[in-house]
Specification:
The complex is a heterodimer. By secondary structure, chain A is mostly helical. Helices cover 74% and strands 3% of the residues of chain A. Chain A has eleven helices and two strands; from the N terminus they run ααααββααααααα. Chain A has a two-stranded antiparallel sheet. Chain B is α/β, with parallel strands linked by helices. The longest helix of chain B has 16 residues, at 166-181. Classes of the chains: A mainly alpha, B alpha/beta.
Chain lengths: 296, 236
């Protein structure tokens, strides 16, 4: 029972981590709270759904959802943030403009789905179960865990080991110094949004599959969760978002299993408050700053 | 190599540059001195494209750079070592230097990491340390090294001696002179007029956004107006 709940929690936590990571890298590089992140997540789930309606199998549908969400996130950057960035009113303006863009995307989702709850086809991911060490694990869980682990590894490698990652961290730390070195901040911001969107899009498909529901309002609760996860991990911290994402998933699973579903949030938020009292900067907020994408 | 004509710019609502003209020829090392708030940094940032000029012209190697974004100007080989170093504190020393190669764009590389480490051996020792943990002098060396790997055609330096001890300042200016004798063109902005005039061939004096005086550095060192205004109270 314990191990089974742990597995379920880790699976959901993996998706939270994926979603929160996209949210935190945008904040870490640009100090933007991108409140359209949940809408991009919803759009990813929708694109995945309509891809299945056209007969696409799992992998191409996921790739299409990620690509579509990446493009959408770039559009969000261009429409909601680029102008504000030029005017120097980004930090607060971004909150309002991203809410606006989120409403637009959500309205499109509402129109397209006719407010219906959509469900991925039953055998989209074959409904197989395996027994490993007495645990019951589904093919979907295996796919989720393996793919999220791979994606997290790729993102961390990209940020900390490549020239692109150095450019991203340079723009995060000191945009003006970065331009003097030949880095184009506009291009870096777009790339960060593309990565963030692709992560959100895939998270959308996974949540749609794990909970068997795709709905135009599905982004809001996850946006709130991502916000808490990112604050808990330390705003802008890559590792913090991942750790806190898994923590939320696991806590939620245990809370539901041992207490009741309605207690899950109470337990989680109490823990968040407790951690923030002890570490106001979040779990990774005051750790060595090399774990950050951006500024403190 | 660099031709600036009647450059004007405002910074924070104040007219910081009021028609500045200057020219720099290949192989020169030129100083720009002047009091605080004369517009020296604004001038460099205008040339680098970080601050937009409101009028005038800037031509670098025959290319009009007055409307070009800053990162493209850097990639042409016009590199600036900004005031206060502006190193990327959260990246390692080596990562800072690796970023410097970006400015090469499609141009050929000339100096590698090892050349920078030979010029500033302390950076080799600290290569995997966080750049923010370096001392001020080491950060200045890193900032210069980071610009050098981008193979600058013209190197702009903004107050390289700021906050450095006289000994370290000697080292930095020594490195600049040897870089210049190996062919690098340099424009250095300095508060420390004696040091600047003593290390350069030519100099401009900027006052209230205008060029007040220009000439050979050696002659300016003996010019009565310069001595009175800039050298009298300067210690080095």
């Amino acid at each position: 029972m314990f191990a089974q709940q742990l597995l379920n929690g880790v699976t959901t936590g993996a998706v939270y981590a994926l979603f929160a990571l996209g949210f935190t890298i945008v904040f870490g590089t640009q100090r933007i709270l991108n409140l359209a992140h949940g809408a991009v997540f919803m759009a990813g789930a929708f694109i995945g759904y309509f891809a299945t309606q056209k007969g696409l199998t799992f992998v191409p549908a996921v790739l299409l959802a990620m690509a579509g969400s990446a493009v959408l996130a770039c559009l969000v950057d261009l429409v909601a943030f680029r102008g504000l960035r030029a005017s120097g009113q980004l930090e607060f303006g971004a909150i309002i403009s991203s809410i606006g863009v989120a409403l637009m995307i959500t309205s499109v989702g509402q129109g397209v789905s006719g407010t219906r709850v959509l469900v991925y086809p039953f055998d989209f991911v074959p409904n197989l179960f395996f027994s490993v060490l007495g645990l019951r694990i589904s093919l979907l869980q295996i796919i989720t865990l393996a793919s999220v682990a791979a994606i997290l590894a790729v993102v961390v490698f990209l940020i900390y080991r490549t020239s692109l990652g150095r450019q991203i961290r340079a723009v995060a730390g000191n945009p003006r110094a970065a331009t003097l070195l030949g880095v184009s901040p506009g291009a870096v911001y777009l790339i960060v949004f593309a990565i963030s969107g692709a992560l959100a899009g895939y998270a959308g498909v996974l949540i749609g599959l794990l909970f068997n529901t795709v709905h135009f309002m599905m982004g809001d609760p996850y946006l709130l969760k991502a916000f808490v996860v990112v604050v808990l991990g330390g705003l802008g911290s890559v590792y913090g978002a991942v750790v806190a994402g898994f923590l939320l998933g696991i806590l939620q699973a245990f809370a539901i299993a041992y207490f009741s579903g309605s207690l899950a949030d109470i337990i989680f938020y109490s823990l968040v408050f407790l951690i923030l009292i002890i570490r106001p900067g979040g779990l990774f907020g005051n750790a060595a700053s090399t774990v950050k994408v951006g500024r403190a | 190599m660099l031709e600036i004509g009647q450059l004007a710019a405002s910074y924070g609502g104040i007219k910081a540059l009021n028609g500045v003209s200057l020219s720099i020829r290949r192989g020169e090392i030129v100083a720009m001195i002047g009091p605080n708030g004369a517009g020296k940094s604004t001038l460099l940032n205008c040339i680098s494209g970080v601050v937009r000029a409101s009028g005038g012209s800037a031509v670098f190697n025959g290319v009009d750079i007055s409307r070009m974004p800053a990162h493209r100007i850097s990639r042409l080989g016009l590199l600036q070592v900004p005031e206060g170093r502006q190193i990327l504190v959260d990246l390692t020393v080596e990562e800072n230097l690796q970023l410097g190669f970006l400015a090469l764009g499609s141009r050929a590389s000339k100096l590698g990491l090892d050349d920078v480490f030979d010029l500033f051996p302390i950076l080799r020792e600290r290569r995997s340390q966080r750049a923010g943990d370096l001392s001020g002098g080491q950060q200045q060396m890193l900032a210069i090294g980071r610009a050098l790997v981008g193979n600058p055609d013209l190197l702009l330096l903004d107050e390289p001696s700021l906050g450095l001890s006289p000994l370290i300042t000697d080292q930095v200016f020594g490195a600049l002179k040897s870089l210049n004798s190996s062919g690098l063109t340099i424009l250095v902005v300095e508060q420390n007029a004696l040091r600047a005039l003593g290390s350069t061939q030519r100099a401009y004096i900027l006052e209230r956004g205008r060029i007040a005086l220009e000439g050979d550095s050696a002659e300016l060192l003996n010019d009565r107006r310069v001595v009175e205004h800039y050298l009298g109270s300067t210690t080095s």
